[in-house]
Amino acid sequence: MTDEFFMQQAMREARKAFDDGEVPIGAVVVANNQVIGRGYNQVEKLNDCTAHAEMIALTAAFNYLGSKYLMDATLFVTLEPCLMCAGALYWSKIGRIVYAAADEKNSYRRSTGGHNPFHPKTKLETGPCTEESLQLIKTFFLQRRNGSM
Ligand SMILES: [Zn+2]
């Protein structure tokens, strides 16, 4: 299984958010080549500004493994994490994070002035599906601006 395959799974989650009228961001947590948690942005549906895709996928993964740490897991997420999610990822000690597209507006980098808030053992990579993710987000905001959502 490739990074591309798992990022496509995260994109599938992002499309669920899109269909629900949520900012289209999706995430999956993978361990041993298997998806053990998935999530998509549900801030509007749950009226909860912490209901980011990463948080939901992490909680699902903790439940699946019965563990509060994810040292051997990888998070695939379609957009660069925000500072809150970076904090949650820090505490999870997740082994690796792959994100598809950079977020110039709300990323952790913006909040920390470039400081790396992740666990020192966490590998951070930018991954496949960059254009696909950006395109979906762009389409979402265009449609919303045009009042068609
Ligand atoms: Zn977040």
Automatic annotation (TrEMBL):
HAMAP family: tRNA_aden_deaminase (MF_00972). Its cofactor is Zn(2+). Binds 1 zinc ion per subunit. The keyword Flavoprotein does not apply. It is an enzyme of class 3 (hydrolase). Belongs to the cytidine and deoxycytidylate deaminase family. ADAT2 subfamily. InterPro entries: APOBEC/CMP_deaminase_Zn-bd, CMP_dCMP_dom, Cytidine_deaminase-like, tRNA_aden_deaminase. Zn(2+) binds at H52, C82, C85. The active site is at E54 (proton donor). Residues 1-111 form the CMP/dCMP-type deaminase domain. Gene3D superfamilies: Cytidine Deaminase, domain 2. Keywords: Hydrolase, Metal-binding, tRNA processing, Zinc. GO terms for biological process: tRNA wobble adenosine to inosine editing. It comes from Chitinophaga costaii. Homodimer. Catalyzes the deamination of adenosine to inosine at the wobble position 34 of tRNA(Arg2). This is tRNA-specific adenosine deaminase. GO terms for molecular function: tRNA-specific adenosine-34 deaminase activity; zinc ion binding. Pfam families: dCMP_cyt_deam_1. Its EC number is 3.5.4.33.
